[in-house]
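User: Structure with cytidine-5'-monophosphate, tokens only please.
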Amino acid sequence: MFSSFAGKHIVIGVTGSIAAFKVAGWVSALAKEEALVDVIMTAAAQKFVAPLTFASLSGRRVFDDMFAAEQEGTMSHIGLAREADCLLVAPATAQTIARLAHGLADDLLTTTILAAQVPVLVCPAMNVKMYEHPATVKNLKILKEYGYHVIEPDSGLMACGEEGLGRLPEWDQVSQFVLREILDKDLAGQSILVTAGPTREAYDPARYLSNRSSGKMGYAIAGAAFRRGAEVTLISGPTALEPPPGVTCIPVTTALQMYEAVMGNYQKASVIVKAAAVADFRCTEQHREKIKKDSSSLMMELEANPDILKELGTICEHERQLLVGFAAESSNIEQEGQKKLKNKNLDLIAVNDILSDASGFAVDTNQITLIDRNRTVILPHTSKLRTADLLWNHIVDHKLLKGN
Ligand code: C5P
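Assistant:
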């Protein structure tokens, strides 16, 4: 399996919070993805989890004592700070945050961070009152001013029994922020608008017209753009998915709501990717009461929704904005794609064969054909996550971004 973490060197600083046990799972996940993981533990962290746990999962010795590390001739704090791809402090206690904010270098972790020449990410995890205390708020502000990336904690029930902000987020969230720091930022400076998912067109209070789009492809495109350094806004119809970390999500239900949201946001975008499966028609009348099954047949009148992409094709400033469409086709993939590229005045179209088992609705894999004004490229059958990166590779490699 392709992994963006393979061959990367991540140093994780574990401090004394009960959430330290969760980070054992992170080390295990990174090691499985063939990252090189070095763990530095504070003295308090070792009261919660034994260094042997991290050593067994990373396959490497755990660093805890600055002077022992120097004596053994192993990599010093300066070496760790210089050679890693990034430093991640997780969980970061109020105490360690305060030490970092004031430049203390009283153990191996703080000394390493003070010497760091690589990105530093900090995941605060503590009791909600400690997190909201003005001292912690001020210290986190100082860390941000120093250029450290502070990852906001989750809200919920804590080990101490209180509820609120301060829980360590899950690895599937944190990993996206880490990847953004260690991957090539080839979309840095881009403001990207992605639409995803189906729309729902109400018929009566209980029923609606919709389609089988799961939103997976659009969400993968938005997440990949964030990891590659872009500012991303995702306008999404109803899906069962969590918005990708770091992405601003605007939820909508109907095609008309999606139209309004796109028109209100497209101007600031440098790239617009319309992966949503917008309903072509809506019910002319939306009944206030539930329709009874009194008769043996039912006529439903529909009216056309605006074609948002087509309208963007005419109003978009193509010299400044890249317009990317999607098309779900069941035959003549390439010809249909070429036709839509021209009719809708797009820069690039990604065509799906919805009859193939390898691509289309709800599945986790896809196989798309990319058609731009100069070339047609058939991407390999792979996961939607990988397809998203291949789409961005195509855009970057063929210099389709405007201003190139
Ligand atoms: O014409 P067709 O529906 O096949 O085109 C699909 C593309 O057009 C997708 O990018 C989809 O997001 C967009 N679309 C739209 N508004 C519609 C219908 C489709 O933006 N009403």
